[in-house]
Amino acid sequence: MDSEAVREVFLPRREDCLEYLRKKRWKEGVKCPYCGSLKIWADGYTRKGARKYECRECGRYFNDLTGTFLSAIISLLRRCLHFEGN
User: Fold this and answer.
1) What's the CA gap between 51 and 67, in Å, rounded?
2) Band of residue 16 on the pLDDT scale cut at 50, 70, 90
3) How much is the mean pLDDT over the chain?
4) 61-63: strand order across its sheet
5) Phi, psi angles (nearest 5°) of residue 71
6) Which of 43, 45, 47, 50 has a Cα at 20 to 30 A from 13?
């Protein structure tokens, strides 16, 4: 089995992962992680493919990963890479 075949079987596409996350996280509709409002406006996508939202109640922006452990990991990696580069 070549590496591309292994990748297809064991590593799902980013879009598929984000769609799965959306379905699991927002079962009853997208909810603002800051104020809990359901009055949300979809506002495109991030560069990495996560859906962006704007809360109509508090005015804050967030995406599919905001407030998840994935967001914390990405933030930590960015800080580590920033310090590595200096």
Assistant:
1) 14
2) confident
3) 82
4) 40-45, 51-55, 61-63
5) -65, -40
6) 43
**Residue carrying structure tokens 């960015």:** 78
DSSP secondary structure string, the chain?
Answer: --HHHHHHHHS--HHHHHHHHHHHHTTTS---TTT----EEEEEE-TTSPEEEEETTT--EEETTTTSHHHHHHHHHHHHHHHHH-
d(CA 84, CA 86): 6
Distance CA(25)–CA(19), nearest Å, equals: 10
Give CA–CA dist 50/2, Å, rounded.
30
Please state the pTM of the whole predicted model. 0.68
Q: Are 66 and 55 in contact (CB under 8 A)?
A: no
How deeply is 32 buried, as exposed, middle or buried, from its count of CB atoms within 10 A (0-12, 13-18, 19+)? buried
Q: Which structure tokens are listed for 73?
A: 């990991």
